[in-house]
């Protein structure tokens, strides 16, 4: 089929509604069914196919002509639908309806019909058809359609006259008298599909009907139909697209208008029959006459105004204003000839003259006001701004109550229509008129409010697709609480999503519906509390809505665009994922224009937007900066003016953007702009009086040399942690809110960018480090932390700087950095502090380590199990100032989490920076640890029985949970939400889990060791042994058995060997290995009351253990954990306490009590955590 090739989705459009896809599908398969039906050999199948085709083609035929569907013009889709509907009707034998559908397709898009379907037929029907004559062709097609409809009604009317053989002359069929010539030249044509369309033959059949003189014999109904048809076929130029243009609505329009404002005339005439009423009506009518004198006004309105004006000329009506009317009489008669060329016009005028001569007093009032009501009513259905002009004219008449009452009557009637009418066209016309009135007369808002306008009625209209109601609501400007109560957001979003349909929309309204919707949405997302604003943002934060919002930017004025920018900033803050969409599709130029504006509000929101959107991965941010630089040639001057003239946060945002742009332009050379902007930032960092500016300035400094994720979160810390060499998955999962597989961390452009920024800052010298020193000492945790991050990424360049500069930096910063080393601080903070000391004290600066306190040295020693830098620094400090370490054995409780309704805490682990706890009732609770408090984040109960263990799983950075319900669940953090993505069934309850790559090692409660591969196939290992515990180290499983032996199994090649033989004792069953722990290169095992430890290589040689600890006799070690200095043992002799042993000296130094039986144990970041049988979780830290 010809149009199928056009039915393709717009590739630039990244998304579309399902309804749009449905429309295209209906058109495609509707056309396809015609071809199949035509080729069918069976009559029943042919009928069914054509019927289905007609049903499907009616779907796109109902589209709005002004819009787009899936990137295709609705006019094209509607034209295709009606054309193929005509083909269907022709194949069904319904030639009348086939002709009607063909004419409708021609009326919608004449060029499409000519160029793509039936060129020869169009040239036959319209010999002078060219691309410039589309309006003429459409007008002619409309007339054809009206006449065809007229004869169709008469044909099916059942009148004997139609079957009596009488005919109508052809020249009565075509108003221009060309029916005979055109019909004789027409022949049967074929469409591009090969389907015959006998449109011409239908016209021949119709043209055979003759003699319209019998029309009066057909009754008043047919007579009225004929009169209406004659009126529509006048030679007056009809405006395409006007309300009168639509044949479906034009038939009863005039009658409907008469009823709309009847209450106005009754009220005016009954209350004021005095002659002065004529004076008022004279002014109104003269104004209407002037409005209608312009070419292109509506025929109906012009005719009624002229009637009213002619009525005023008679001397029989002895009124004081008759001379004014007489002066204009000749002009009015001339306009009647231009606008009302119907042959009976003069007769009708004379008839009205005689009627007016017989009228007097109150009757005259009634007649004149009746004409006036039709004039005012007609304005409601036109696209011209008569309404505002009339109301403005009445509003300017300050004297006399009559004008006020007429204004009130107009407003009352419009408000009544909005509140009571069920017809969309009536409501739309009334809303449009009110909107026009308010647009032209701001004072009308107060008049409308006094009338008691119910916003709920406008809300209902908006929800019924009367989009103009959005403009009216915006102009009325109700309070935010009232807007919220109307629940307008879904309807406003729909208006925004259809913003493309308003392209080229000609109107004098101050604000188009999409722009009004945007400004109302701004109120809904900014005027309420945090939760309410976010609930509104959730409704608009989708690609489809963002696309509609961005489409408005091409036509917005300053105020509208400020509202739009505010919404976009809120969207990025609510859900950072829309940042990537805006980066790809949002234009930059409008925001630069806002920066150039003289209005502060426009500058503020532009700076907010640019500051917010630049929080993206560094390489993408650089591309965006280049785009800003290219489209804003004067952007540097604009920004430096913002830095100099604005205050507080906006000054800092301008400085941030200016520095980044300047680095692109002047990579090596000095820049006045850059230095001034940096001075502003450092001054704000050192300003302790304004904590808000300190917060923003330190945030900017901490990330200006780093990177972000697409969600807008700072990933500078993650980038530095990876550069520091932290690779242990257990350590990485202690750090909060970071996705270590995020592509932003693989960005190769971060290092070079960081180096450029760092060099430009270091060139300023000592003031930089003096400002950062004050930031480090701030009592606000976020300020001191951000200062530490800035110092950390600067350290990679300071190491290349002269010794004098590095020494001065050390003197200023090292004392403040030390505080972040101690246990109790966040792991990433301790790591960054270690990184800073290592880089700033490099080379000869290492001698400064002799000034470290004993506490700092002890912190470095304890942190040596996390990073090699801590170990190196501790060795250097001991080298320059040998000191016998004195280990503090004091432990302080810093955490207590109570939850008494889920049973015992049976499993503990850190995952994605959150503490996961498993319980005996199958529940899993997730806690966010902040200092010495814990916040419950999630509470889930997916397992049916006890959660016995957790394990980290590398593929997808997942978490495994094993349970006594014979299942393993795979959990993943997706967009900050925890989801179970897989369920692995097992045949036995799970006791312990560990992983290596994609392999999962499992110990069941029956002490069997199994391995599950990536395909989820399970295989038994150590079939001859009963395994009690295990740990996995570098692809090897070290399994502790019930006979006190230890087996080493290679996961890659399934080789097994025994590295510790079973104890040769007749009491073999009493010495199972209950716990195996790997710490650094050592392996520790606890069997019965003994804990043995050796290097893994020594275990393989089956040497005697280097460390052997014997606890109380008769006591079994149930659980064990290690840190740098201490060993924590939970023994059967006292299940509610932890024994503290010095790891290197094998000396017991104390104990800590959990209060109840300890059921789970975990150490992380030097903190030891215990879970108890009562659901209590406690945490201690060594000081």
Account of the protein in words:
There is one protein chain. Helix content is 51%, strand content 16%. The chain is built from 50 helices and 32 strands. The strands form 9 sheets. A 4-stranded antiparallel β-sheet has the order 5-32-31-30, with no helix packed on it.
Overall SS class: alpha+beta
- Shape verdict: globular
Mean pLDDT: 76
Q: Give the % helix.
A: 40-55%
Gyration radius (Cα, Å) is 43 Å
* Count of helix runs: 50
Low-confidence stretches: 8-18, 156-225, 232-369, 371-376, 378-385
Give the termini distance in whole angstroms: 82 Å
Largest sheet: 4 strands, antiparallel
Write down how many β-strands occur, each being a DSSP E stretch of 2 or more residues.
Answer: 32
Portion in strands: 15-25%
Kindly report the spatial arrangement of strands forming the biggest sheet.
Answer: 5-32-31-30
Features:
1183 residues; alpha+beta; four-stranded antiparallel sheet; 50 helices
What's this model, at a glance?
Helices cover 51% and strands 16% of the residues. The chain is an alpha+beta fold.
Secondary structure layout plus pairing:
Layout: H1 18-39, H2 43-61, E1 68-69, E2 72-73, H3 74-92, H4 95-108, H5 110-117, H6 119-125, H7 134-155, H8 170-173, H9 179-185, E3 189-190, E4 196-197, H10 199-207, H11 220-232, H12 247-250, H13 253-260, H14 262-271, H15 276-292, H16 299-311, H17 322-327, H18 329-339, H19 345-358, H20 361-379, H21 386-396, H22 401-420, H23 424-440, H24 444-450, H25 455-463, H26 468-476, H27 480-485, H28 489-497, H29 513-526, H30 530-540, H31 543-552, H32 558-574, H33 578-585, H34 589-596, H35 600-613, H36 618-631, H37 635-645, H38 648-665, H39 672-686, H40 691-703, H41 716-723, H42 729-732, H43 749-762, H44 766-776, H45 781-798, H46 803-818, H47 827-840, H48 854-863, H49 868-880, E5 891-898, E6 905-911, E7 914-919, E8 924-930, E9 933-940, E10 947-953, E11 958-963, E12 967-974, E13 977-985, E14 990-996, E15 999-1004, E16 1009-1012, E17 1018-1021, E18 1027-1033, E19 1036-1041, E20 1046-1050, E21 1056-1060, E22 1073-1079, E23 1082-1087, E24 1090-1095, H50 1096-1100, E25 1107-1110, E26 1117-1122, E27 1126-1131, E28 1134-1142, E29 1147-1153, E30 1158-1164, ...
Antiparallel strand pairs: 1-2, 3-4, 5-32, 6-7, 7-8, 8-9, 10-11, 11-12, 12-13, 14-15, 15-16, 16-17, 18-19, 19-20, 20-21, 22-23, 23-24, 24-25, 26-27, 27-28, 28-29, 30-31, 31-32
Helix pairs in contact: 1-2, 1-3, 2-3, 3-4, 4-5, 4-7, 4-10, 5-6, 7-11, 9-10, 13-20, 14-20, 14-22, 15-16, 15-20, 15-21, 16-18, 16-20, 21-23, 22-23, 23-26, 25-26, 26-29, 28-29, 28-31, 29-30, 29-32, 31-33, 32-35, 34-35, 35-38, 37-38, 38-39, 38-40, 39-40, 39-44, 40-45, 43-45, 44-45, 44-46, ...
